[in-house]
Amino acid sequence: MRKLALALCIGGAFVASSAFANSLNAGPGAEMVPSGKGFGINGNSQAQQNANPHHGGGGNGISYHGGPLILNTTNVHFIWYGNSGWPTTSANNILTNLAQSLGGSNYFNINTSYYNGSNVHVSNSVHYSGAVSHSETYGSSLTDSEIQQIVADTNPTDTNGVYFVLTGPDVTASSGFCSQYCGWHTHGLISGLDIKYSFVGDAATQCPSGCMAQTTSPNGDGGADGMASVLSHELEEAVTDPDLNAWYDTRGAENADKCAWTFGTQSTASNGSKYNVVLGGKQYLIQQNWVNASGGYCSMSY
Ligand SMILES: [Zn+2]
User: Fold this and answer.
1) How many other C-beta atoms lie within 10 A of the C-beta of residue 250?
2) How far is CA 292 from CA 58, 233, 246, 280, in A?
3) How far is the CA of 41 from the centre of ligand 1 (A)?
4) Which of these ranges, 6-20, 115-129, 193-207, has the smallest mean pLDDT?
């Protein structure tokens, strides 16, 4: 990402105060670009200046701006940040199974509708590359730069990977977890490499109504089940807009932003919670993603 705006899950107030204000700054005809935090910002960036000659893919409600995509297998790396006891068994099971099962799914196949300037499309291939644990050496309220440092601490070298910093329920992110976003993705230069990474927090005790679609959840862990949808959101954005200069719309919304907090057809699990997809034998309630074809639409499959 971009950060997945909380606003989109709890109503329009925050969208109005952020994206709206920025669009006023942008002026007539100006295009907004991804902020990294789930809402667009004024497009006077070098990225947009570079991007303008490459505009393409219009007609489906989202456009290509010339930057790279992760085209081949996307590697998912987990960094569990928290006290001992994190991840819990259920969080580990829910999110690891998800990372192991997204590749090849009809759901992830939506991302194959995105392509680069040579018309090479994203592949429906995700590889779970494993996890490391990181103790709470930076405390329980993380700045954006500390989150990048947590990634750097793991000595990342995989430029086709996305490194997910998955924080426990006692940890927050000071740039706006629970007040402005539920997660985000971005990239940074770490030891000379363009490393893509993402923050996804456990909202169970901090903002269940803001970042979780439901408190009773298919796998009995509302925090981790909520993270599953946010993680999927950030992954599909990191694949189609890893450097925040590839696929997004005129408001600066990336593919998953355009469908945030919409779930399509749902079924009822045995505990009464809702789910809309089964991956690796587990039921999940995961947001839809934007299909870049047929005029563009939110869907759970392609
Ligand atoms: Zn987003």
Assistant:
1) 18
2) 9, 15, 13, 26
3) 13
4) 6-20
**CA of residue 270 to ligand 1 center, whole Å:** 30
Q: How many CB atoms lie within 10 A of CB 236?
A: 27
Distance, CA 185 to ligand 1 centroid (Å)? 8
- Assess whether pLDDT exceeds 80 at residue 25: no
CA of 258 to the centre of ligand 1 (A): 8
Alpha helices in the chain (DSSP H): 7-10, 13-15, 21-26, 46-51, 89-101, 144-153, 208-211, 222-240
Structure confidence at residue 21 (pLDDT) = 26
Q: How far is the CA of 89 from the centre of ligand 1 (A)?
A: 27
Q: For the range 131-135, what are the long-range contacts, defined as Cβ-Cβ under 8 Å and sequence gap of 24 or more?
A: 131/77, 131/78, 131/79, 131/80, 131/92, 131/96, 132/77, 132/78, 132/79, 132/80, 133/79, 133/80, 133/81, 133/86, 134/79, 134/80, 134/81, 134/165, 135/82, 135/83, 135/84
Give distance in angstroms: CA of 263 to centre of ligand 1: 15
In angstroms, what is the span from residue 197 Cα to ligand 1's centroid? 13
- Tell me, in angstroms, the distance from the centre of ligand 1 to residue 178's CA: 14
Report the separation in Å between the CA atom of 77 and the middle of ligand 1, taken as the mean of its atom positions: 19
φ and ψ at residue 80, rounded to 5 degrees? -85, 115
Per-residue confidence (pLDDT) for residue 57, from 0 to 100: 62
Please tell me the total number of residues recorded for the chain in this structure.
302
Three-state DSSP at 90 gives helix
